[in-house]
């Protein structure tokens, strides 16, 4: 396979000490970039971080997570305030990634480059560089951000403590967004000579992926939106005779098939049980029948039976079992790094090049004095507007549906691509029918809140792809496209005659990004899979839930995570195509994106032999950490003490200075050992206060705290509003509402990312087909024969 890596000439300076920045750098080094870590004298904090406890590292040993994130990078130590060597590296870099570590932030980078030098600067911080929470000095780790973004409030049973999603998934997704922005910025830099700044907010990335859909639902439906409450999926993860298995029943047909699976076809006419709300009311009855059926069957037996009925199903991935799952083993999903430890491979495969294998893990300062980058003087090219978006001039044929695929193509559209969404008349994007109005409402298929939030800035045609003449139209569209993106199961595009050979025959310069759930080969190739299935199989669910209870899915984050990874791979494919003149085939599976995001638990097991597991709302790196019920009805305060210096401040704030005087509680391990005592003290204080005053008092004392915010209230968050995160959309049917934007600011999009709302079904049939050279008679004939249309068939 050719080894021309698309970013081989790109210089990246990484000044970070947290997961998002390090993962952004990893994505770039995997695509060939030269990534240099600029570290303080005591090193990147991740060098000594382990989620399983304190590390004592010998010569040549490295922390599990650091091995994964730093492989293939170089290390330079910056031990002065502003040493000349560090300044020269900043000035010579094409991309600079900062998160405040070692004093390197966006403001400092802005002050260094001389006039005429351009670079892509990516800043990744909890709240961005500006806004009320920054001005107020609000402190936050992932747990606090999950409370703010609407994630925690909706997870768990009604009346019980709401739960976090384990594994710091929000930080990983923020890193993926930053990687996409950096790659797109590189493309713009190469073509226009202009750099850019991306001010990435981890909070906003989590708002998009972990709470924003609930907010958009409330915005679109207004008073008709269902009341927000806590829930868990049923069915979901169930104990078997030899382990755990996970189900996902998104559609009514899947739930009916599930009842047949568990030998309860007698309940097929039970309308109450068929509804999600009904199952919650009758959860004890429902879970008893499901658990009883599964308890006498093995996981493998259940997976085979459910797969035959096309019910999304998977064994629950654990740190011990992940590497032995047949789909992952046969596809070579896990590779050994330079130290001999297993880790997930790069989450995409391509026909044009083999992504870099894991390189050596750098010793601290190994390359100090050895890396010398000359400043690359760049001047803006004539005719390149200052606000030209990175993907200006790129056309995308978008065959995606649901959430993961549309997330990818919406990113491409926001960054300037002309995206044409193709929907079947008989099988439109299923998200048109989810989270919207009932069928009694005129044009009810235009109200789906997930669809409205995931398809902005696109054009749309309704094309019945099962018809031979429709295939001809699709191929003409592909002929004029730079990218083709799809996320169906592999057999669907094969049935349409639109696989890679067909695309390549239509245009030798077209790239194709395929996003199957599990891959284009392997024993799971043709299985149905949704985000919940990926979370179950990848180990994400293993890290979420109470320690004495079953794993719980994080809920949905795999869809946008897969979409962002696919968008990154799409940009890399375009860069490869432009360098070689040949289109590129890319396979970016949902589950392999999830495995990268969930990598830490596997790394801890393979490197240290430790099995991480769910621990409720507690987590590594903070103690105490939890949610505490306040005086309001179902109002909770999230609190996290992230360093020992905050502990006396917390003790004073809750009127317990005696706790600060207790030497056994002075350190995090000591507080962890007496967590019940600490929680009782905090809970007693919080219970007598409303959530607002409790959070305000703790923040004033310098303690990270937040209200556990319902997703529906996110549009009123003062920080998100001040940063312009919410985009005002006008839709011809759904009217005006606020939709999630993108989790970063950019110089090229000063007024926001959304230029037009999601398209009506078939809205651009005539416009797009005319661009393909079809005359009015041909277009009318296609409409008369039911090959194109402006409403779903049968509705």
Automatic annotation (TrEMBL):
One of its GO terms (molecular function) is CoA-transferase activity. SUPFAM superfamilies: CoA-transferase family III (CaiB/BaiF). InterPro entries: CoA-transferase_III_domain (IPR050483), CoA-Trfase_fam_III (IPR003673), CoA-Trfase_III_dom3_sf (IPR044855), CoA-Trfase_III_dom_1_sf (IPR023606). Keywords: Transferase. Signal peptide: none annotated. This is CoA transferase. It comes from Actinomadura darangshiensis.
């Amino acid at each position: 396979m050719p080894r021309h890596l698309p970013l081989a000439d790109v210089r990246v300076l990484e000044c970070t000490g947290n997961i998002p920045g390090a993962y952004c750098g990893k994505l770039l080094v995997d695509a060939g970039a030269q990534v240099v870590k600029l570290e303080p004298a005591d090193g990147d904090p991740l060098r000594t971080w382990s989620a399983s406890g304190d590390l004592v590292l010998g010569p040549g040993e490295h922390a599990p997570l650091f091995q994964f994130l730093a492989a293939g990078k170089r290390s330079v130590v910056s031990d002065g305030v502003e040493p000349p060597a560090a300044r020269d590296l900043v000035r010579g870099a094409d991309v600079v990634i900062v998160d405040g570590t070692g004093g390197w932030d966006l403001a400092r980078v802005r002050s260094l480059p001389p006039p005429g030098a351009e670079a892509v600067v990516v800043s990744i911080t909890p709240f961005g560089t500006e806004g009320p929470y920054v001005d107020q000095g609000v402190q936050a780790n992932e747990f606090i951000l999950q409370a703010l973004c609407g994630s925690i409030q909706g997870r768990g049973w009604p009346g019980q403590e709401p739960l976090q999603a384990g594994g710091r998934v929000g930080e990983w997704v923020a890193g993926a967004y930053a990687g996409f922005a950096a790659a797109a910025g590189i493309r713009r830099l190469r073509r226009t000579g202009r750099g850019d700044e991306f001010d990435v907010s981890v909070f906003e990335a989590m708002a998009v992926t972990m709470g924003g859909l609930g907010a958009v639902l409330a915005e679109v439906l207004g008073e008709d939106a269902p009341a927000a409450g806590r829930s868990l999926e049923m069915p979901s993860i169930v104990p078997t005779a030899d382990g755990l298995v996970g189900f996902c029943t998104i559609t009514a047909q899947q739930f009916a098939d599930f009842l047949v699976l568990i030998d309860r076809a007698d309940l097929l006419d039970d309308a109450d049980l068929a509804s999600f709300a009904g199952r919650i009311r009758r959860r004890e009855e429902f879970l008893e029948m499901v658990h009883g059926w599964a308890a006498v069957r093995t996981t493998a037996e259940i997976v085979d039976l459910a797969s035959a009925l096309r019910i999304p199903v998977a064994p629950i991935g654990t740190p011990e079992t992940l590497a032995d799952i047949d789909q992952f083993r046969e596809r070579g999903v896990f590779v050994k790094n330079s130290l001999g430890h297993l880790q997930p491979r790069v989450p995409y495969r391509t026909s044009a090049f083999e992504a870099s294998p894991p390189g050596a893990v750098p010793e601290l300062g190994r390359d100090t004095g050895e890396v010398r980058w000359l400043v690359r003087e760049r001047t803006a090219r004539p005719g390149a507007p200052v606000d030209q978006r990175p993907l200006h001039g790129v056309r995308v044929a978008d065959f995606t549906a649901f959430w993961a695929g549309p997330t990818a193509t919406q990113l491409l559209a926001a960054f300037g691509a002309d995206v044409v969404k193709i929907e079947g008349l008989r099988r439109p994007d299923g998200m048109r029918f989810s989270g919207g109005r009932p069928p009694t409402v005129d044009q009810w298929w235009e109200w789906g809140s997930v669809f409205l939030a995931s398809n902005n800035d696109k054009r749309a045609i309704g094309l019945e792809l099962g018809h031979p003449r429709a295939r001809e139209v699709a191929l003409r569209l592909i002929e004029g496209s730079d990218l083709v993106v799809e996320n169906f199961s592999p057999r669907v595009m094969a049935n349409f005659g639109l696989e890679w050979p067909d695309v390549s025959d239509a245009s030798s310069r077209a790239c194709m990004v395929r996003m199957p759930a599990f891959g284009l080969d392997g024993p799971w190739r043709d299985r149905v899979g949704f985000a919940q299935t990926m979370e179950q199989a990848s180990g994400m669910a293993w890290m979420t839930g109470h320690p004495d209870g079953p794993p719980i899915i994080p809920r949905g984050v795999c869809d946008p995570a897969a979409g962002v990874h696919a968008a990154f791979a799409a940009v890399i494919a375009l860069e490869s195509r432009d360098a070689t003149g040949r289109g590129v085939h890319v396979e970016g599976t949902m589950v392999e994106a999830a495995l990268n995001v969930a990598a830490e638990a596997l790394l801890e097991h393979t490197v240290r032999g430790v099995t991480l597991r769910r621990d409720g709302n507690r987590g590594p790196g903070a103690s105490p950490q939890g949610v505490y019920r306040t005086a309001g009805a179902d109002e909770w305060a999230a609190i996290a003490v992230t360093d020992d210096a905050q502990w006396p401040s917390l003790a004073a704030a809750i009127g317990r200075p005696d706790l600060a005087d207790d030497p056994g509680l002075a350190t995090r391990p000591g507080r962890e050992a007496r967590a019940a005592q600490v929680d009782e003290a905090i809970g007693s204080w919080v219970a007598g206060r409303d959530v607002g005053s409790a959070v305000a008092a703790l923040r004033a004392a310098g303690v990270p705290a937040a209200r556990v915010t319902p997703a529906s209230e996110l549009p009123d968050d003062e920080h998100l509003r001040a940063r312009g995160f919410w985009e005002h959309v006008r839709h011809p049917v759904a009217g005006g509402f606020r939709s999630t934007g993108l989790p970063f600011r950019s110089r090229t999009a000063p007024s926001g990312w959304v230029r037009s709302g999601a398209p009506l079904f078939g809205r651009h049939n005539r416009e797009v087909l005319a661009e393909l050279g079809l005359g009015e008679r041909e277009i009318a004939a296609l409409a008369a024969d039911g090959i194109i249309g402006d409403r779903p068939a049968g509705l």
